[in-house]
Amino acid sequence: MDAAAIAKRLLDADASLWPSPNVAATRLGWLGLAVDLENEANALIEWADQLERSHVVLLGMGGSSLGPEVLRAAIGSGALTVLDTTDPATVASVTDDLRDTVVIVSSKSGGTLEIQTLLARCWEVHPDASKYVAITDPGTELDTLATEREFGRIFRNDPNIGGRYSVLSYFGLVPAALLGYDVGALLAAARDVNSVDAVEAGVAMAEAALAGQDKATIRVPDQFAEFGLWVEQLVAESLGKGGKGVVPIPTTGPEKGDDRHHMSVELSSPVDLGRAFMWWELATAAAGHVLEVDPFDEPNVAESKANTKRVLSELPLPTIETADADGVTAWLHDNTRPGDYVSLQAYVPYGDAFGLEQTRHGVRDALGGMPVTAGYGPRFLHSTGQLHKGGPDSVVAVQVVPRTPRPSLAIPAFDYDFATLIDAQAIGDHQSLVEHGRRVLRVAADDFAEIN
């Protein structure tokens, strides 16, 4: 394919690049962000410098949280905590003391259940509106609520930008400014992207997938390991639909396999993330053109949300068959076939990313190098969850839940607590996978080392 011609059509916001009907016409605002927000860079930095706080907590999910987490981790900052889980132990540890803390409430739709419940918790602990910042689309529930409560600042984002393409909008730049980034330099790096090079890489990734190499092994430098979270969502949620897809496997080390397509992330400094974000967005959009899928919709994401809502409306929670964690490898040997990949889905407290990654490596090696992905729930429901349900029937899921009952943590104004909520999300996700005929095993473990 002519990468230069595709790049020109893409930069011209030509929605006919993707099969009709599509939502591209109302999702291409990200293409101009590096120019459109250039004049606001200094104002964002000045606002952040003047904002009194000892810490920042960001409430977000998916595209609202993963970009800020990448920016935070790239500079090793403890000034920002991204809260994108409903696990009660994690929520309590972050929100028990919010004195002198700025809370960013970040949601494109403004109606995401996780954000509503997390905000309810934070507001009960520290109801000082001057310490709250909202980032959302104009006219959303969150916009209305933030206006009524007189939040310290409301950033209304361009609605023509989907969540996973929003990192160079207010959703990423506001946290970046609070982290001390030179926002103008981030945008300048994005403007310097080689669009033809990005499109060529996206075309190659999609053509490899069509030829059977649909596991994109994306090598990320150790210093920028968290970039893998963001690019994994971008590729999986954009391309995994209609029985098609590319399975992203972010890794800091080499991985081999006949069904692998190898890519790498080139980064020289934290500011260079601006270029990397734009490069991968262009590449992924171009891959959607080759695969003939709409890279801007997420038709299967709503299923688990609906299942969660249904489960919560029929309390008490149903009992789901749960196996012992020491039988995972044996079950996988019996239930996988060539061309599959394993998805480890951990509905457990955050805090042991190393243990989860080691478990991923252990399962991969036990299966002779089969591709294995790993993620925390409910985070991945707004990320790779689209691929698991809408992509090819090559996913074999292992859902991990705690063996020890979760602690109770109330959600103000809700009829259930956080423990019930995350358990309902796990059950709803399990039901959605089963409804799609996916192979799924649910196991209980309090430590990733128990999984073998």
Keywords:
alpha/beta, Rossmann fold, 41% helix, 3 domains, 452 residues
Short description:
With 452 residues, the chain is of the alpha/beta class. It has three domains: 3-26 and 194-269 and 276-291, no CATH class; 37-188, Rossmann fold, CATH 3.40.50; 301-450, Glucose-6-phosphate isomerase like protein, domain 1 (Rossmann fold).
Cα-atom radius of gyration: 21 Å
Structural class category? alpha/beta
Strand order of the largest sheet: 2-1-3-4-5
The CATH homology group name of the largest domain: Glucose-6-phosphate isomerase like protein, domain 1
CATH overall fold name of the largest domain: Rossmann fold
Number of helices, counting only DSSP H or I runs of 4 residues or more: 17
Helix content: 40-55%
The SSE order reads HHHEHEHEHEHEHHHEHEEHHEHEHEHEHE
Oligomer state of the chains in this structure: single chain
The chain-level mean pLDDT equals: 96
Overall number of structural domains: 3
Proportion of residues in extended strands: 5-15%
Tell me the CATH architecture of the largest domain. 3-Layer(aba) Sandwich
- Record field, number of beta strands: 13
Name of the top-level CATH class of the largest domain: Alpha Beta
N-to-C terminal Cα separation, in Å? 45 Å
**Model regions low in confidence, pLDDT < 50 over at least 5 residues:** none
Shape: globular
Major beta-sheet overview: 5 strands, parallel
Model description:
The structure is a single chain. The protein is α/β, with parallel strands linked by helices and 452 residues long. It folds into 3 domains: 3-26 and 194-269 and 276-291, no CATH class; 37-188, Glucose-6-phosphate isomerase like protein, domain 1 (Rossmann fold), CATH 3.40.50; 301-450, Glucose-6-phosphate isomerase like protein, domain 1 (Rossmann fold, 3-Layer(aba) Sandwich), CATH 3.40.50.10490. The protein is 41% helix and 14% strand. The chain has 17 helices and 13 strands. It has helices at residues 3-11, 33-36, 41-50, 66-74, 88-95, 113-125, 141-149, 170-178, 183-191, 195-210, 227-239, 273-291, 301-313, 328-335, 353-366, 385-390, 418-435, and strands at residues 55-59, 80-83, 101-106, 132-136, 153-156, 215-219, 247-251, 260-264, 323-324, 341-346, 372-376, 395-401, 439-444. The strands form 3 sheets. The protein has a 5-stranded parallel β-sheet, with helices on both faces. Strands 9-13-12-10-11 form a 5-stranded parallel β-sheet, with helices on both faces. Helix 7 links the parallel strand 4 (132-136) and strand 5. Helix 9 (183-191) packs across helix 12 (273-291). The chain is globular.
